[in-house]
Design goal:
Endonuclease I-creI, 2 domains, 4-stranded antiparallel β-sheet, LAGLIDADG_dom
Length: about 290
């Protein structure tokens, strides 16, 4: 691990819970023995390619690709020894349902490092791969332990959203100005959003979209539905007193710092009620316009 920046394993685990992916496949080779391909990747917009480079430097592993046609870059790691070191540090810190895949990925990688598939036990790896690509059970990621601050920061850098919006109103000024902090996840990670809510002690978790059919959640709940849930904080007081101070303690590593800075500035203007003056409203509109232009 390269200590040239202030990333931590907890931060990285949070970011991987949001943007990381694990891939395993069996590939036939010219010899009789098959090749087991393993790949750990993190995807980001080309605008945030520098963030992937920071992670690469922290891990001292992998390659950061150029942007594809969709404008997405990837940090990709194949080396078995590096994968073993990285996953050994990440797995205990992962909090989402993705942890189940990470555990199996690490197990498959270790079996391959021991060359089990070359010693007549290919079926053992095939069984693990089948489980790896099997249906996820939301109960597998259930954990009631408090989340670490650095995990929160990493996860929000991957999945969080800081927003400023204008809403039409019938009287007075044409628009009402709102600030908002949100995280949206698939319903199978609903319990994780509740833990985030418990960490900040402000905001609420709501159903963002739901559709049938109902699926058993596991021993911790009776049923849940496919779709997504959202954790959101919209109170100006809560954002100014809880959200902004927390994220100001440590800087963001990527471009999300720009949307956070915009929301923070607008939230303080709203707190001081300067938006009720023409000058204050014009200032907010100019800041939002400049942000969108850049």
């Amino acid at each position: 691990m390269n200590k040239i920046n202030d990333m931590s394993w907890d931060w990285l685990a949070g970011f991987v819970d949001g943007e990381g992916s694990f891939h395993v496949s069996i590939r036939k080779s010219a010899s009789l023995n098959p090749t087991i391909d393993r790949r750990f990747a993190i995807a980001q917009s080309s605008k945030d390619r520098d963030l992937l480079v920071k992670i690469q430097q922290f891990l001292d592993a992998g390659t950061v690709t150029k942007a594809n046609k969709q404008g997405v870059c990837h940090l990709v790691i194949y080396n078995a020894t590096k994968l073993s070191h990285i996953l050994t540090n990440l797995v205990p810190r992962l909090q989402s349902i993705k942890k189940h895949k990470a555990v199996l990925f690490l197990e498959i990688n270790e079996l391959c490092r021991k060359k089990v598939h070359l010693l007549g036990d290919l079926n053992l790896i095939k069984d693990r791969i089948s489980e790896f690509y099997g249906k996820l059970n939301p109960g597998q990621s259930t954990n009631n332990e408090p989340l670490s601050p650095d995990w929160i920061r990493g996860f929000v850098e991957a999945e969080g959203c800081f927003g400023v919006s204008f809403h039409k109103r019938e009287r007075g000024y044409k628009h009402q100005i709102r600030v908002r902090f949100t995280i949206g996840l698939h319903s199978r990670d609903r319990l994780l959003l509740i833990r985030i809510n418990n960490f900040f002690l402000v905001g609420h978790v709501t159903v963002h979209f739901q559709s049938e059919p109902k699926i058993a959640l596991g021993e911790h709940d009776s049923v849940f539905q496919t779709g997504s849930y959202q954790y959101s904080v919209e109170s100006i007081k809560s954002i100014n007193e809880k959200i902004i101070p927390f994220f100001e303690e440590k800087s963001f590593h990527g471009i999300k710092k720009h949307s956070f800075e915009l929301m923070s500035k607008v939230a303080r203007i709203l707190k001081d009620k300067l938006h009720l003056t023409p000058e204050g409203r014009n200032l907010i509109e100019t800041m939002v316009k400049d942000y969108r232009a850049n």
